[in-house]
Amino acid sequence: SSASVCAAAEVGLGGGATVGQFRVLSRWSDGGCGGMGSVQWLLVDTQASLPAHGMHGAYALTTGNGSFGGSPLASETAAEITVDTGLATFTLRKQGYNLLHQVVVGPSTFLSPGSGGIELVATDGTSFRSDLDPTSDVIIEENGPARAVVRARGSYLSAVGMRALDYTVRMHFYRGHGRVRVVHTLRNASTALTDNLAFRSLELVLPTTLTNPDVRFA
Asked: For residue 76, which phi and psi values (nearest 5 degrees)?
Protein backbone atom coordinates (compact mmCIF):
# COMPACT_ATOMS: atom_id res chain seq x y z
CA SER A 1 0.00 0.00 0.00
CA SER A 2 1.06 3.64 -0.39
CA ALA A 3 1.41 4.00 3.37
CA SER A 4 4.44 1.71 3.29
CA VAL A 5 6.33 3.76 0.65
CA CYS A 6 8.33 6.70 1.93
CA ALA A 7 10.86 7.30 -0.85
CA ALA A 8 11.57 6.50 -4.49
CA ALA A 9 14.65 4.59 -3.34
CA GLU A 10 12.38 1.93 -1.83
CA VAL A 11 10.72 0.71 -5.05
CA GLY A 12 11.62 -1.30 -8.14
CA LEU A 13 10.02 -2.78 -11.27
CA GLY A 14 9.10 -6.41 -11.88
CA GLY A 15 8.21 -7.95 -15.22
CA GLY A 16 11.64 -8.03 -16.81
CA ALA A 17 12.35 -4.28 -16.96
CA THR A 18 16.04 -3.60 -17.67
CA VAL A 19 15.98 0.10 -16.76
CA GLY A 20 13.84 2.23 -14.50
CA GLN A 21 13.80 5.48 -12.60
CA PHE A 22 11.37 6.90 -10.08
CA ARG A 23 10.37 10.36 -8.81
CA VAL A 24 7.91 11.26 -6.08
CA LEU A 25 5.25 13.65 -7.41
CA SER A 26 3.08 14.10 -4.31
CA ARG A 27 2.53 12.75 -0.81
CA TRP A 28 -0.40 11.96 1.44
CA SER A 29 -0.98 14.21 4.46
CA ASP A 30 -1.09 11.16 6.72
CA GLY A 31 1.82 12.09 8.94
CA GLY A 32 3.69 8.94 7.95
CA CYS A 33 7.34 8.62 6.97
CA GLY A 34 8.61 10.76 9.81
CA GLY A 35 5.97 13.41 9.27
CA MET A 36 6.65 14.13 5.61
CA GLY A 37 3.79 11.90 4.41
CA SER A 38 3.82 8.62 2.51
CA VAL A 39 4.01 8.58 -1.29
CA GLN A 40 0.71 9.29 -3.07
CA TRP A 41 1.88 9.58 -6.72
CA LEU A 42 5.12 8.20 -8.16
CA LEU A 43 6.43 8.88 -11.67
CA VAL A 44 7.97 5.76 -13.24
CA ASP A 45 10.15 5.84 -16.37
CA THR A 46 11.20 2.66 -18.17
CA GLN A 47 11.74 1.34 -21.71
CA ALA A 48 10.40 -1.68 -23.57
CA SER A 49 11.31 -3.14 -26.97
CA LEU A 50 8.34 -4.47 -28.91
CA PRO A 51 7.89 -5.98 -32.39
CA ALA A 52 5.40 -4.36 -34.75
CA HIS A 53 1.86 -4.80 -33.36
CA GLY A 54 3.38 -6.63 -30.39
CA MET A 55 2.42 -6.46 -26.75
CA HIS A 56 4.46 -6.59 -23.58
CA GLY A 57 3.53 -8.24 -20.33
CA ALA A 58 2.65 -6.02 -17.41
CA TYR A 59 5.34 -4.31 -15.40
CA ALA A 60 4.70 -4.37 -11.67
CA LEU A 61 5.85 -1.91 -9.02
CA THR A 62 7.75 -3.87 -6.39
CA THR A 63 10.04 -3.25 -3.47
CA GLY A 64 13.56 -2.43 -4.57
CA ASN A 65 16.43 0.02 -4.37
CA GLY A 66 15.20 2.81 -6.64
CA SER A 67 16.53 3.70 -10.09
CA PHE A 68 18.39 0.92 -11.89
CA GLY A 69 19.82 -0.02 -15.27
CA GLY A 70 22.87 2.21 -15.46
CA SER A 71 24.28 5.56 -14.44
CA PRO A 72 22.29 8.82 -14.70
CA LEU A 73 22.45 10.20 -18.25
CA ALA A 74 23.42 13.77 -17.32
CA SER A 75 26.49 15.22 -15.63
CA GLU A 76 27.70 18.79 -15.23
CA THR A 77 30.58 21.13 -14.65
CA ALA A 78 30.47 24.81 -13.74
CA ALA A 79 30.16 25.75 -17.42
CA GLU A 80 28.43 22.84 -19.19
CA ILE A 81 25.94 19.99 -18.92
CA THR A 82 26.71 16.76 -20.74
CA VAL A 83 24.07 14.14 -21.55
CA ASP A 84 25.30 10.72 -22.70
CA THR A 85 22.44 8.53 -23.93
CA GLY A 86 24.72 5.71 -25.04
CA LEU A 87 24.02 6.50 -28.70
CA ALA A 88 24.88 10.19 -28.67
CA THR A 89 26.60 12.72 -26.42
CA PHE A 90 25.04 16.17 -26.12
CA THR A 91 26.79 19.19 -24.60
CA LEU A 92 24.79 22.19 -23.41
CA ARG A 93 26.29 25.52 -22.41
CA LYS A 94 25.00 27.09 -19.18
CA GLN A 95 25.81 30.73 -19.89
CA GLY A 96 24.90 32.02 -23.33
CA TYR A 97 22.55 29.06 -23.85
CA ASN A 98 22.53 28.07 -27.53
CA LEU A 99 20.24 25.02 -27.44
CA LEU A 100 22.78 22.30 -28.31
CA HIS A 101 26.39 23.39 -27.99
CA GLN A 102 27.84 20.17 -29.43
CA VAL A 103 26.52 16.78 -30.58
CA VAL A 104 28.76 13.72 -31.03
CA VAL A 105 27.60 10.34 -32.30
CA GLY A 106 30.31 7.67 -32.14
CA PRO A 107 33.47 9.15 -33.70
CA SER A 108 31.57 11.85 -35.60
CA THR A 109 30.78 15.40 -34.50
CA PHE A 110 27.48 16.40 -36.07
CA LEU A 111 27.23 19.81 -34.46
CA SER A 112 30.37 21.87 -34.01
CA PRO A 113 30.87 23.59 -30.64
CA GLY A 114 29.24 26.98 -30.36
CA SER A 115 27.16 26.92 -33.54
CA GLY A 116 23.44 27.48 -33.60
CA GLY A 117 21.02 28.72 -30.98
CA ILE A 118 17.48 30.07 -30.84
CA GLU A 119 16.79 33.23 -32.81
CA LEU A 120 13.81 35.57 -32.67
CA VAL A 121 13.56 38.08 -35.52
CA ALA A 122 11.50 41.23 -34.93
CA THR A 123 9.27 42.79 -37.59
CA ASP A 124 12.00 45.36 -38.35
CA GLY A 125 14.54 42.58 -38.97
CA THR A 126 16.41 42.93 -35.67
CA SER A 127 17.83 39.59 -34.49
CA PHE A 128 17.44 38.56 -30.85
CA ARG A 129 19.35 35.44 -29.79
CA SER A 130 19.44 33.18 -26.76
CA ASP A 131 23.24 32.89 -26.86
CA LEU A 132 23.63 36.65 -26.35
CA ASP A 133 22.25 36.35 -22.80
CA PRO A 134 25.20 35.80 -20.42
CA THR A 135 22.86 35.24 -17.45
CA SER A 136 20.91 32.26 -18.82
CA ASP A 137 19.99 29.69 -16.17
CA VAL A 138 20.43 26.04 -17.25
CA ILE A 139 19.96 23.17 -14.79
CA ILE A 140 19.45 19.41 -14.72
CA GLU A 141 15.81 19.07 -13.68
CA GLU A 142 15.48 15.26 -13.86
CA ASN A 143 18.26 12.72 -14.10
CA GLY A 144 18.27 8.94 -14.19
CA PRO A 145 19.34 5.95 -16.27
CA ALA A 146 16.20 6.08 -18.48
CA ARG A 147 15.64 9.79 -19.04
CA ALA A 148 17.12 13.20 -18.31
CA VAL A 149 15.49 16.63 -18.49
CA VAL A 150 17.44 19.87 -18.79
CA ARG A 151 15.62 23.15 -18.13
CA ALA A 152 16.90 26.45 -19.56
CA ARG A 153 15.64 29.96 -18.84
CA GLY A 154 16.84 33.25 -20.24
CA SER A 155 16.12 36.21 -22.51
CA TYR A 156 16.38 36.93 -26.19
CA LEU A 157 18.82 39.83 -26.53
CA SER A 158 20.03 41.82 -29.50
CA ALA A 159 23.68 42.48 -30.28
CA VAL A 160 23.43 45.79 -28.37
CA GLY A 161 21.76 44.18 -25.33
CA MET A 162 18.11 45.08 -26.03
CA ARG A 163 15.63 42.52 -24.68
CA ALA A 164 12.72 41.13 -26.69
CA LEU A 165 11.12 38.22 -24.80
CA ASP A 166 12.08 35.58 -22.26
CA TYR A 167 12.03 31.83 -22.81
CA THR A 168 11.80 28.55 -20.95
CA VAL A 169 13.08 25.44 -22.73
CA ARG A 170 12.88 21.86 -21.50
CA MET A 171 14.96 19.25 -23.31
CA HIS A 172 14.14 15.56 -22.83
CA PHE A 173 16.86 12.97 -23.50
CA TYR A 174 16.28 9.20 -23.59
CA ARG A 175 18.58 6.25 -23.00
CA GLY A 176 19.75 4.62 -26.24
CA HIS A 177 18.32 7.36 -28.48
CA GLY A 178 19.85 10.15 -30.51
CA ARG A 179 16.73 12.30 -30.57
CA VAL A 180 15.90 15.21 -28.27
CA ARG A 181 12.39 16.37 -27.41
CA VAL A 182 12.39 20.17 -27.08
CA VAL A 183 9.50 22.05 -25.42
CA HIS A 184 9.86 25.81 -25.94
CA THR A 185 7.77 28.43 -24.13
CA LEU A 186 7.90 32.15 -24.86
CA ARG A 187 7.49 34.36 -21.78
CA ASN A 188 6.45 37.99 -21.65
CA ALA A 189 6.24 38.71 -17.94
CA SER A 190 8.27 41.87 -17.59
CA THR A 191 7.05 45.18 -16.18
CA ALA A 192 9.44 46.84 -18.63
CA LEU A 193 7.51 45.43 -21.60
CA THR A 194 3.77 45.37 -20.98
CA ASP A 195 2.52 45.54 -24.59
CA ASN A 196 2.11 42.63 -26.96
CA LEU A 197 5.23 42.07 -29.02
CA ALA A 198 4.97 41.30 -32.72
CA PHE A 199 7.81 39.36 -34.32
CA ARG A 200 8.56 37.88 -37.73
CA SER A 201 9.97 34.46 -36.85
CA LEU A 202 11.31 32.21 -34.14
CA GLU A 203 13.84 29.59 -35.25
CA LEU A 204 15.88 26.82 -33.68
CA VAL A 205 19.16 27.12 -35.58
CA LEU A 206 21.36 23.99 -35.68
CA PRO A 207 24.01 24.13 -38.42
CA THR A 208 25.29 20.56 -38.85
CA THR A 209 28.59 19.29 -40.22
CA LEU A 210 26.76 17.14 -42.81
CA THR A 211 27.73 17.96 -46.39
CA ASN A 212 24.73 16.41 -48.16
CA PRO A 213 22.01 15.92 -45.54
CA ASP A 214 18.80 14.08 -46.34
CA VAL A 215 16.06 16.11 -44.67
CA ARG A 216 12.49 14.80 -44.54
CA PHE A 217 9.33 16.39 -43.18
CA ALA A 218 6.21 14.54 -42.10
From this structure: -150, 155
